[in-house]
Amino acid sequence: MLRYSLRRTLHSLIVLVGVLVLVFLVVDRIGDPARLMLPADAPIQVYLDLRAKLGLDEPFFDRFWSTVSGWFVGDFGDSLWQGVPALGLALSRVPVTLSLTFASLVVAIPLALLLGTRSAIKPGSLADRFLTTVSLTAVSIADFWLGLMLILIFSVQFAILPTSGFGGLEYLILPAATLTLRPIGRIAQIVRSALVEEMQKPYIRTLRAKGLTEGQIVRKHALKNSAIPIVTVAGDEIATFLNGAVVIETIFAWPGIGTLFIGAIERRDLPMIEACVFVVAIMVIAVNLLVDLTYARLDPRAKIYD
């Protein structure tokens, strides 16, 4: 287990460095931060002084080596936009994003398991067709459209929830509801598919012959034995929450790392972009590693240790 974890972590870190290098090369080639930070009519000398202050007038390979060497000691430099250490600012936004992610998952996973299990017990029934339609609809609705519709209904029309911001529970409801719908539909579909296949296996007939009810069979046996694809999709949804909630955070002015990332991109703030990519990538790596280790707990036949 330890050897496998270390090997996976090493591979992930190599990928992480590759992603950061790619981000550096792309951002360095597509814009001049000094131009963006100054007014359009700024004197040329002011522009040149700012480039010198930011180190943008140094040769490309000098800037590249200085940046890469800083990554290995956790130094991403100061944000060109806010003038504070970029990594510290990115890390300060993580709890805000995690709070939104946690609230969405607490609702999405239990509901998805309930809907998927209920559909799988009697496949082809009216309840199954109805719940399948609901889950497919949930998957098909675009998050940004749903967020705007929820604002229109609950904030503009009825004025019972705030349109945006961060604070108490009332600020969390709309963005969490927006993020929750799609994973409910996706996970419910996987739960149904996995359970329908599992319920057709010979050992299920044996359990029925012993007098166990369908509910007991599903809860104690079938659900556990079909958990690997469910865990895979759930892990994928968690990773999506961590790196894909940018649009939702922007719509609801949620001050998470996604909003910070968008602001950094708009301002060509390379240190801030790199820090955001680094933090999100570390969280995604941790989620993927946790999912892989969960496989071994659920199914010892999964030879992940070799």
UniProtKB/TrEMBL annotation:
Pfam families: BPD_transp_1, BPD_transp_1_N
GO cellular component terms, A-Z: plasma membrane
Annotated InterPro entries: BPD_transp_1_N (IPR045621), MetI-like (IPR000515), MetI-like_sf (IPR035906)
Gene3D superfamilies (alphabetical): MetI-like
Subcellular location: Cell membrane
Membrane topology annotation: Multi-pass membrane protein
Domain ABC transmembrane type-1 residue range list: 94-291
Matching PROSITE patterns: ABC_TM1
Alphabetic keyword roster: Cell membrane, Membrane, Transmembrane, Transmembrane helix, Transport
Family stated for the protein in its record: Belongs to the binding-protein-dependent transport system permease family.
Record protein name field: ABC transporter permease
